[in-house]
Amino acid sequence: MDVSAWIKEAALARDKAYAPYSGFRVGCALIGADGTVFHGCNIENGAYGPTNCAERTALFRAIADGQAPRSFQALVVIGDTPEPITPCGVCRQVMIELCSPDMPVYMANLAGDVQETTVSDLLPGAFMLRV
User: Fold this and answer.
1) What contacts 131, CB < 8 A, 6 or more positions away?
2) Taking residues 103-125, what's their average pLDDT?
3) In the list 21, 36, 85, 125, which could disulfide-bond 79, CB 3.0-4.6 Å?
């Protein structure tokens, strides 16, 4: 699979978003080491705090399905925004712990704009708890 195919997978995930309060739907495709695509979408909750972003949904799904942390090839996130959508701060913190620092992150919008970065570039000076 190539990046354009991964973007289509993220768009499919976006279609499943549960966003009755904001109407702001986001999709994510996390690519496992073996090429498996783990879909994630944002899931809102009326209490707001329990709301989960698409990126974290995909990451938590992959870990729950047995994927090893830091074994992923890439993450793609897509939203209906004027510019390519970027992960929030909480998602960036989760990504820095569960993904390799040099893992590519592709940020896209429905208009076809795409930006590429890496996990470490999204969160310079990241906090890491050493255990």
Assistant:
1) none
2) 97
3) 85
Identify the active-site residue in 44, 55, 83, 97.
55
Domain 3-122 has CATH 3.30.930.10: no
* CA 54 from centroid of its chain's CA atoms: 6
Q: What integer pLDDT is reported at residue 131 of this predicted model?
A: 67
Is the entire prediction scored with pTM above 0.90?
Answer: yes
- Asked whether the beta carbons of 67 and 47 are under 8 A apart, the reply is no
How many whole angstroms separate alpha carbon 101 and alpha carbon 118?
7
pLDDT per residue as tens digits for the range 38-94: 999 999 999 999 999 999 999 999 999 999 999 999 999 999 999 999 999 999 999
Structure-token pair, residue 11: 């768009």
Domain ranges across the chain: 3-122
